[in-house]
Write a structure and sequence with these properties.
The complex is a heterodimer. In chain A, 21% of the residues lie in helices and 30% in strands. Chain A is α+β, with helices and mostly antiparallel strands. Chain A has an 8-stranded mixed beta sheet, with no helix packed on it. In chain B, helix 1 crosses helix 3. Chain B is of the alpha+beta class. The chains are: A alpha+beta, B alpha+beta.
Chain lengths: 568, 129
């Protein structure tokens, strides 16, 4: 309840401006003259000097106290950092629920590791502890227990989490949690649980836990309230972004693509010609991107001389960094990753990319030496081999997916799909700068700022050359002569789209008709915010990819960022 | 308008809560208070008060002429300050303030103060510094 005493807002005598007191005294004098015409209220009289003037100061103080309290009710002032009573302002903001109660809890994602690939049921009331004072509960979309299913099982319930093989001896599942965090829980922290789960061999935090609402964010909270107050629901562009911002404190960029945007290719018309509402929510968190390496078992197809299989990763991958054989990591592999939609009706072809609806497959030709001998040893009677897949992911994406699938928030009539931003992979960015003689340019500082800038970019923040210029100026350069860039749009973590249902039944036929994603390269900084729609749209080779300012993000690695001094 | 009497006859001014004055007498009392108030001590009214007391204690009244100059300025300051509070057409409004040096011996100075109202009523006292 937001209550406050006016006395907490009263100014001291020194804080009362003389002009304010004089104005109040003049008003009081008018009242006295009107009500008590015989009483002399002017200065130099006992009544005027000994009563009216002190009274004017007191009334001025009350007026200032009132104004301060009204100021705390005006969220524009609070958002600008003008807060007179933080406790009252915070309590008042709770009336607008800028962050739901459970979101103000600390949150994170834990990885449960099991020694075998069997289904399990974990009571939703299970608690997970990460040191003293850090207690977390499961954050599930559905009302039932947490159901962990064996590898490859279909999900038919909101609380179904399917195991993925992590290495030869363990199977993992990542689950969101929320709770109380007394001390920071960092990535890699080992936890314990109060429930007995057979085969559970590890509980690990995959990323730093977030502490929820910070104490020093009254003005930030007010800003969020003003921007989210109008409609934090998933039925409109602004409402979806507002909902995500409210629900997930770790999201640094959120953008909604709706029916009618050129980036939206999921919407369709029903037989009556009415467009079915679709909404894609692209998100990126402050923890993007984490890197993980996971063991994947692939079947060896002797006829095709290839290793083939589903690429079931624990998280939704944004970029596959590399694949090596577990038993022969030094052998170079040529691999092809294919994308298929788990639900072609909701998200056909490329529209499923970077979402939970995308199913990846991988094909690796058997590497052979010049004399045609195999460079990889198969196992299990020449049927399988294990490969280590290194990939990048944003831990928040799956968390958002879980929440958006909850029946409590799922909007009626709008198909909402959460995904990561479509990344533009910057292969090379060179900044040619100019500096004055004798001046040191702090390249490391500029590098960190530019990398951070690209990482945080997301609509409505779009790329500007001036941001790089600013970073160079702050680093000591006197100017930027030229920025050269080489980049390409990565439509999916895969390079081709499969159109066949159950491609593993006849892999050769399925891949024969697979459609390569189009190539869109960028060679000028001005093109770093491309607007593109699949050129083959409507033809037999369409892949339904599209990009624009609303759904693109960037991946720029430090090794691809170069600096060069331009000698004048 | 009525006001409580300020008794200046003792060693320091006192309020006489049993007595009231009104009309031009209250105006004259206000003027006396203003004459003795140091200018700048009232944060609400910058023009209130005079520099008469400051000039006296700071050694600026080096002779009778200088004392008279201070007195003249004090009278003018008081006149203009008080006139701002008089209603137009008020017969008890202040018409003039005259402060005259009547005795100066280097250690003490006496002034004769005469207040004249718009109706011609005259009130005069002799303060001592």
């Amino acid at each position: 309840m937001a209550t406050a005493s006016l006395t907490s807002y009263l100014p001291t005598y020194a804080e009362i401006p003389a002009e304010r007191a004089a104005a109040v005294r003049a008003r009081l004098e008018t009242i006295v003259r009107a009500g008590w015409p015989d009483l002399d209220p002017t200065p130099n009289t006992p009544f005027g000097d000994l009563h009216l003037t002190p009274l004017a100061y007191q009334i001025a103080a009350l007026e200032i106290a009132g104004e301060r309290m009204f100021s705390d009710l005006d969220l524009a002032n609070v958002a600008a950092g003008v807060v007179n009573n933080c406790d009252f302002a915070k309590a008042y903001l709770q009336n607008f629920a800028p962050t739901p109660r459970e979101s103000s809890q600390a949150s994170g994602v834990i990885r449960l590791a099991f020694s075998n690939d069997v289904g399990r049921v974990i009571d939703r009331r299970a608690l997970f502890a990460f040191g003293a004072g850090n207690i977390f509960g499961l954050r599930l979309s559905g009302p039932d227990a947490l159901l962990i299913l064996p590898v490859g099982s279909p999900k038919t319930n909101l609380n179904h989490y399917v195991l993925t093989q992590f290495d030869r001896n363990s199977f993992i599942v990542d689950v969101p949690v929320a709770g109380i965090m007394g001390t920071p829980v960092t990535a890699g922290s080992e936890g314990t649980t109060d429930v007995l789960v057979t085969g559970l061999v590890g509980i690990t935090a995959i990323a730093d836990f977030l502490s929820g609402t910070r104490e020093d964010t009254v003005s930030a909270l007010a800003q969020k309230t003003r921007s989210t107050f109008y409609a934090a629901s998933l039925t409109s562009r602004g409402g979806a972004v507002a909902f995500i911002s409210k629900e997930f404190l770790q999201i640094t960029a959120a953008s909604a693509v709706v029916s009618g945007d050129h980036e939206m290719l999921r919407d369709s018309e029903n037989p009556l010609g009415v467009t079915n509402g679709s909404l894609d929510v692209c998100v990126r968190s402050s923890q993007a991107f984490l890197t993980d390496t996971q063991l994947v078992k692939l079947s060896y197809n002797a006829e095709l001389d290839k290793f083939i299989g589903r690429l079931d990763l624990a998280e939704i991958p944004v970029k596959i960094d590399g694949v090596v054989c577990d038993t022969a990591p030094t052998v170079g592999l040529e691999y092809t990753i294919y994308s298929a939609s788990r639900n072609p009706v909701r998200a056909p072809l490329g529209t499923a990319a970077y979402s939970e609806l995308e199913q990846l497959y991988i094909e690796i030709p058997m590497p052979r030496a010049n004399d045609n001998t195999r460079l990889i040893v198969t196992e299990n009677g020449d049927t399988v081999a294990y490969f280590l897949v290194t990939y990048r992911y944003d831990p928040a994406t799956k968390h958002v997916v879980t929440t958006l699938n909850s029946p409590e928030v799922k909007p009626v009539g709008v198909d909402v799909l959460a995904k990561s931003f479509t990344p533009i992979i910057v292969d090379s960015l060179t900044v040619e700068y100019v500096k004055k003689p004798g001046v040191q340019v702090n390249i490391d500082q500029a590098r960190q700022e530019i990398l951070s800038y690209f990482l945080k970019l997301g609509y409505p923040d779009i790329y500007f050359d001036s941001a790089i210029g600013d970073s160079m100026l702050y680093a000591g350069a006197s100017g930027v002569k030229r920025i050269t860039v080489s980049a390409h749009v990565q439509w999916s973590a895969a390079t081709k789209a499969l159109v066949t249902e159950d491609p593993l039944e006849d892999w050769a036929s399925a891949t024969a008709v697979a459609r390569p994603f189009p190539t869109l390269t960028i060679s000028s900084p001005g093109d770093l915010t491309p607007a593109y729609v699949d050129a083959a749209l409507g033809t037999g080779s369409e892949t339904l990819v599209a990009c624009g300012k609303r759904n693109i993000g960037y991946i720029l690695d430090s090794a691809n960022l170069n600096f060069s001094e331009f000698k004048t | 308008m009525q006001t409580t009497v300020v008794d200046f006859t003792g060693d320091r001014p006192r309020l006489d809560l049993n007595k009231r004055i009104s009309g031009f007498k209250s105006s004259a009392q206000r003027c006396l208070v203003n004459l003795g108030t140091r200018k700048g001590t009232d944060p609400l009214y910058e023009d209130r008060g005079t520099n008469l007391l400051r000039d006296a204690v700071s050694g600026r009244m080096i002779n009778a002429n200088a004392a008279q100059h201070s007195a003249n300025f004090a009278a003018a300051d008081t006149y203009f300050f008080e006139r701002a509070f008089d209603a137009p057409g008020d017969i008890d409004a202040l018409a003039s303030v005259a402060l005259t040096t009547v005795n100066y011996d280097g250690q003490q100075v006496n002034f004769q103060v005469v207040f004249v109202s718009a109706s011609g009523e005259q009130i005069g006292v002799t303060p001592t510094l």
